[in-house]
């Protein structure tokens, strides 16, 4: 007699747009949906004040047949937690972890964000929340070391959240220009990137600058492009994974000029598949530069 299926809930907080954590959750749900031993549901808990946009909705529903978008403290959220036998939770939101623990559920955490140094109530609650998990997977050694500095727990490990390994290829001789991939938000270094591009006066035919994505910084970006009179900047907007892969394969350099310590740096980890390196700071969870020619 076959064993009954387990109910697996893949859940995490989201600002309602397609980003790195959302991409990881979607890839995980797509893979798990093919496992015969699990019944899978994918749930995004939308942050207060944010709304879900089409790029996230369409991407999630294309990968998993059972997708939910809920609010904090809602009946729908508690109902999904009750339904699950196993929860794979992104980070350690207490309104998901604590009810799941009280209901006797198995809890597995993928921890995407570093521990902040401030000693306030929020951080203390999250510190307690992370300790209740049956298993913790930190997405980089940098993040892991902020939570478990000296003694690593036996039920913790480092597992980079690389969603899909690229498969496309473009001959190096056919590659052109620079590429930026990410949300257009503060501290991503987009303004500095545009100023540096203008200062170096690159040939726009041979060295175009392609900026993928979108976000609240868009008016600032467009205004700066006009102010600097840049002609070599291309902005395709939000693209799907296949299109993103084509852009990455056909570029000479991937640029990741963040002004803050990134927890993982998921996108800068991918150029190795095309035998080139990103230009990124050697801080935080970014891939460390290797001692060889590009």
Oligomer: single chain
Radius of gyration: 20 Å
Major sheet characteristics: 7 strands, parallel
Number of helices: 9
Low-confidence runs (pLDDT<50, min 5 residues)? 288-294
Spatially, the strands of the biggest sheet line up as 3-2-1-4-5-6-7
Mean pLDDT: 86
Query: Per CATH, what is the topology of the largest domain?
Result: Rossmann fold
Globular, elongated, flat, extended or rod-shaped: what is the shape? globular
Concise description?
The chain is an alpha/beta fold and 294 residues long. The protein has helices at 20-32, 54-63, 75-83, 94-102, 121-131, 141-147, 190-200, 218-228, 241-249, and strands spanning 6-14, 38-46, 67-71, 86-90, 106-111, 135-138, 156-158, 178-181, 209-212, 233-237, 253-255, 278-279.
């Amino acid at each position: 007699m076959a064993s009954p299926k387990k109910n697996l809930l893949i859940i995490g907080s989201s600002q309602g747009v397609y980003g790195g954590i959302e991409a990881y959750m979607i890839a995980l749900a797509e893979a798990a949906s093919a496992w015969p031993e699990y019944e899978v549901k994918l749930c995004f808990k939308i942050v207060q004040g944010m709304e879900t946009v089409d790029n996230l909705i369409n991407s999630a529903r294309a990968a998993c047949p059972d997708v939910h978008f809920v609010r904090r403290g809602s009946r729908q959220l508690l109902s999904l937690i009750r339904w699950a036998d196993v929860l794979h939770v992104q980070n350690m939101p207490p309104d998901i972890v604590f009810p799941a623990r009280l209901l006797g559920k198995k809890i597995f955490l993928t921890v995407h964000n570093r521990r902040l140094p401030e000693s306030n109530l929020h951080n203390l609650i999250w510190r307690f929340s992370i300790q209740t998990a049956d298993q913790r997977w930190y997405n980089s050694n940098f993040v892991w070391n902020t939570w478990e500095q000296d003694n690593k727990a036996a039920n913790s490990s480092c597992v980079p959240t690389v969603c899909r390994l690229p498969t496309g290829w473009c001959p190096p001789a056919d590659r052109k220009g620079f590429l930026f991939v990410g949300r257009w938000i503060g501290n991503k270094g987009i303004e500095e990137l545009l100023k540096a591009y203008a200062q170096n006066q690159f040939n726009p035919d041979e060295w175009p600058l392609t900026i993928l994505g979108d976000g609240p910084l868009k008016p600032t970006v467009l205004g700066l492009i006009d102010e600097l009179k840049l002609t070599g900047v291309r902005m395709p907007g939000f693209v799907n994974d296949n299109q993103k892969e084509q852009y990455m394969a056909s570029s000479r350099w991937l640029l990741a000029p963040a002004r803050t310590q990134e927890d993982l740096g998921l996108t800068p980890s991918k150029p190795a598949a095309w035998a080139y390196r990103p230009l990124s700071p050697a801080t935080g969870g970014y891939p460390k530069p290797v001692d060889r020619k590009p």
